[in-house]
Amino acid sequence: DGGITQSPKYLFRKEGQNVTLSCEQNLNHDAMYWYRQDPGQGLRLIYYSQIVNDFQKGDIAEGYSVSREKKESFPLTVTSAQKNPTAFYLCASSIGQGGTGELFFGEGSRLTVL
Amino acid sequence: KQEVTQIPAALSVPEGENLVLNCSFTDSAIYNLQWFRQDPGKGLTSLLLIQSSQREQTSGRLNASLDKSSGRSTLYIAASQPGDSATYLCAVKNFGNEKLTFGTGTRLTIIP
Question: Residues of A numbered 47-66 whose beta carbons fall under 8 angstroms of chain B's beta carbons: which are they?
Fold first, then answer.
């Protein structure tokens, strides 16, 4: 089954710790994205990558980092510099250049800072 | 800057009724508009994608329309069922911009 797998589904972190959220896709999509969802707010873009070994900051990149070493994988690290990291994190992908622009999402990872 | 609004924030209707969800956007230079469904604690499921050159798209009991000139899209759900209960979000992609701008969603409850 083709899709996007995010792990872990739930994660608890102490203040001052870095955590890494995993996102893997087997859709052969070039573009991958990380969004953050908070209650009462629309999804906000953290980082995106249109091709391997390249990525760009979104609207709220401060306190986050990413890598794109493989087409299938786009992990997100939430660093201790992120002031309010408790949120629901969603990874998405799309075909990329020449595609329809349709976005597909994973099931999300909920991060809680204790 | 694109802004997307979905009103109302919540809607309850009896089972079997037809209903319309609204999405409005401020910048009409859009590349596409996408409707999603989100169940509690889950990711987003793509329902319908409308390209800027299209007026509507249909999938089963769902029909989405797009009017760029007025900055509006509607999602029509026919013969609603309790399983349709979820939050529905619309998102707009503008030309030359990789980012989608999301509305805050309409939480739909179908009453059996």
Answer: 48, 50, 56, 58-59
Q: Which residues in chain B are closer than 8 Å to A42, comparing Cβ atoms?
A: 4, 89, 101-105
**Rounded-to-integer distance, Cα B25 and Cα B8, Å:** 15
A1-16 per-position pLDDT tens digit = 679 999 999 999 998 8
Q: Are A103 and A93 in contact (CB under 8 A)?
A: yes
Count Cβ neighbours within 10 Å for each residue of B35-66 and write b for 16 or more, e otherwise: bbbbeeebbbebbbbbebeeeebeeeebbbbb
Nearest CA in chain B to A33: B99
Computed on alpha carbons and rounded to an integer, the radius of gyration of chain A in Å comes to 13
pLDDT digits (tens, 9 = 90+) for B10-60: 999 999 999 999 999 999 999 999 999 999 999 999 999 999 999 999 999
Q: What angle do CA B15, B20, B22 make, to 5 degrees?
A: 140
